[in-house]
Amino acid sequence: MSNAVIEANGLSKRYGTAYAVHDVTFTVGAGEIFGLLGPNGAGKTTTILMLLGLSDISAGRARVFGHDPMREPLAVKRLIGYLPDTVGFYDNLSAADNLHYTARLMGFHLLDRKKRIAAALERVGLAEVADRRVGTFSRGMRQRLGLAEILVKDARIAILDEPTNGLDPQASADLLALIRSLKAQGVTIILSSHLLDRVQSVCDRVALFNAGEIALMGTVDELGRQVLGGGYAVEVEADGGEGIATRLAALPGVRNVAEPAPGRWRMTCDRDLRGEAAAEVVAAGGRLHQLSLDRPSLETIYTRYFQTQEVPHAA
Amino acid sequence: MRRKGSPWQGLGVVILKELSDHFGSMRVRVLEWLVVLTALAAVYGAIQDIRAVTAEDPFLFLHLFTTAREPLPSFVSFLGFLVPLMAIGLGFDAINGEHNRRTLSRILSQPIYRDALLFGKFIAALTTLAVSLIALWLLVIGLGLIMLGVPPGGEEMARAFLLLVVTIAYAGVWLALAMLFSTVFRSAATAALVTLGLWLFLTVIWPALAPAIAEAVVPSDDQATLVITAQMLARLSPSTLFGECVMAILHPTTRTLGPVYLDQLQGAVMGSPLPFWDSVMVAWPQIVGLVAATILLFVGGYVVFQRQEVRA
Predict the structure, then answer these.
(1) Which of A57, A71, B106, B233 is least surrounded by CB atoms within 10 angstroms?
(2) What ipTM was predicted for this assembly?
(3) Distances from the Cα of A147 to the Cαs of A154, A157, B9, in angstroms?
(4) CA-to-CA distance for B171 and B168, rounded, in angstroms?
């Protein structure tokens, strides 16, 4: 990837003789949302901590905007905003004071700090409670405050570790909207989550971790092809016509055609072939009743993958 | 591997934040009041006794710190007991508190090294202790001036100031110990209990245990070696070192803190006070011992913290 801002090459983390992360290689492009998936203990957070320079790298190398997190952790930390799983704040301080502390660590001057903090709190919807002690905040508010910290920092990369964990649906939706707005302003995002539908709704690409290694990587469609044998499922319902199944199977990009019931066909294909399928039905002299498309669900891919691997999963 | 960037970046920010936390916290206020009230009670009791004795003593002011009036112990005895409590109170949850609040990974993802966080916390807590002790010291001196009506001499002030410095060093030992355990144990309660247990052991049990151990390891006919061994073992306790410093600094007639040999007494005028710097030299090994213990314990905590995983 030519515009890669994060590069991990053969990254490994060893505790004694056991590997927490083994030979992980991936790149993340500028402005991309990259999802890290996998069961607990699969190595997602360890990989994140190595990228941040917060955990030593046993083997391999990582680069963040060309900086080595091991040798130049301060430079890397200036570029990355990190929202850990279950983000913690100083409960005795107000939301604004918590942000002032980290902004001072970033080296921002008072006036600059005030402007950045006011704007960030406004954007995450916490401006009204800026002076309230964080001890009174709900989990959702804390997560938003964590995102506000990333905004104050003006981070070019945001690493979000399970950001929607434990949030109610509305708070999750709000947070995902904020994540999308970060992407819109050009921030590169690494998102680790168990909530697969959430990941699918925002991520451009995902890496599926299993036992410290990346088992699968790519877009959801690519993963669908790798695991399910096809990225899309097109369902056709029609009557009349001759040899519809044969015609549908002959379409380029179709992997297989099943006929679960008379007059119903299910095509597994590499792309959306609804238009071509409709044309074939009409060409065969049939009457089309229904045409629907199922995109591969990350949940289906994830479940199927771990069924084939016969390992427990925690999604 | 050499890392780029100063390990002290962000140190000032951490110190200011921690200082603000300490001075605003109820825990510190309670501990400060505890120390101030008990110490002032001891000084008030001492003043009543000092008034009854002669004002011809050239070190009258120093009696403020050492005189005990039943049932209250002396001011320095209070310091020896309460300063460790205050230091432990400030340090037992310094690092594990960050873990438990889940703030550690968030703070360390800012552009600072762990060095700055740990050192900043230590400096801030030691500064808090120093400010409290300086305030207490000034209160005692002021109270002495008002109630005794006699201004202290230069040497008395120098000795009183040295006592202040030694007390801060003594507090540093317990603070470093508490911070070491706050790094080792994830539970703040465990860290507090272990530190308090060790403090009680070193302050109460060890001084009594040291002679027994010495008797077990030294032949019974060698009395001089026995005494020296017992004293050396007792000096493993910071409380013993502090007590000996106090003895040398506040009792100017103290010529040695070990056994006195006959040849040392040749030419000595018994009962005459030593000059200030001679007293400093007498207490110097103990002062160095306190500072060294602080550094050693801090380095222990530093090494543990550097090797620790950040994740909650």
Answers:
(1) A71
(2) 0.84
(3) 11, 12, 24
(4) 5
Could you give the CA distance from residue B66 to residue B163 in angstroms, rounded to a whole number?
11
How many A-B residue pairs are in contact by the CB < 8 A criterion? Answer: 92
Amino acid letter, A213: E
Q: Are A49 and B310 a contacting pair at CB < 8 A? A: yes
Torsion of CA A28, A32, A38, A44, to 10 degrees: 50
Residues of B in contact with A71 (CB under 8 A): 1-4
Q: What are phi and psi of B118, to 5 degrees?
A: -65, -45
* A254-261 and A264-269 beta bridge pairing: antiparallel
At B106, is the secondary structure helix, strand, or coil? helix
Inter-residue contact B125 to B94 (CB < 8 Å): yes
Helices (runs of H) and strands (runs of E) counted in chain A: 11, 13
Contact between A73 and B5 using a beta-carbon 8 Å cutoff: yes
- DSSP secondary-structure letter at B222? -
Residue B207 main-chain phi, psi, to 5 deg: -60, -30
- How many other CB atoms are found less than 10 A from the CB of residue B9? 17
**Helix residue spans in A107-228 (DSSP H):** 110-123, 139-153, 169-184, 196-202, 220-228
Residues 293-312 of B with CB under 8 A from A: 309-312
DSSP state of B258: S
- For domain A4-93+135-224, give the CATH number: 3.40.50.300
Residues ≥6 apart with Cβ < 8 Å to B142: none
Coil, helix or strand at residue A48: helix
Distances (CA, A) of B302 to A89, B117, B172, B285, B297: 23, 10, 15, 25, 9
Q: Is A114 exposed, middle or buried (0-12, 13-18, 19+ CB in 10 A)?
A: middle
Q: CB-based contacts of A139: which residues, under 8 Å, 6+ apart?
A: A166, A167, A171
Note the pLDDT of residue A315.
Answer: 42
Domains A4-93+135-224 and A232-294 share a fold: no
Residues of chain A found within 8 Å of residue B2, distances taken between Cβ atoms: 71
Residue B222: HSE in the Cβ half-sphere, 13 Å Cα cutoff: 11
- Tens digits of residue pLDDT in B186-215: 999 999 999 999 999 999 999 999 999 988
Q: What angle is formed at CA B34 by the lines to CA B52 and CA B242, rounded to 5 degrees?
A: 70
Which residue on chain B is closest to A76 by alpha carbon?
B111
Chain A residue set in contact with B, beta carbons under 8 Å: 45-46, 49, 52, 54-55, 70-75, 77-78, 80-92, 101-102, 104-107, 146, 149
- In degrees rounded to 5, what are phi and psi of residue A210? -145, 120
Q: What is the CATH number of domain A232-294?
A: 3.30.70.100
pLDDT by residue for chain A (315 residues), tens digit each? 558 899 999 999 999 889 999 999 999 999 999 999 888 888 999 999 999 999 999 999 999 999 999 999 999 999 999 999 888 999 999 999 999 999 999 999 999 999 999 999 999 999 999 999 999 999 889 999 999 999 999 999 999 998 887 778 888 888 888 889 999 989 999 999 877 877 778 899 999 998 899 988 998 888 887 787 767 888 999 987 888 999 999 999 888 888 888 889 988 888 888 999 999 999 998 999 999 988 777 888 888 788 777 655 444
**CA nearest to B308 within chain A:** A55
Domain boundaries defined on chain A: 4-93+135-224, 232-294
Write down the pTM of the prediction: 0.87
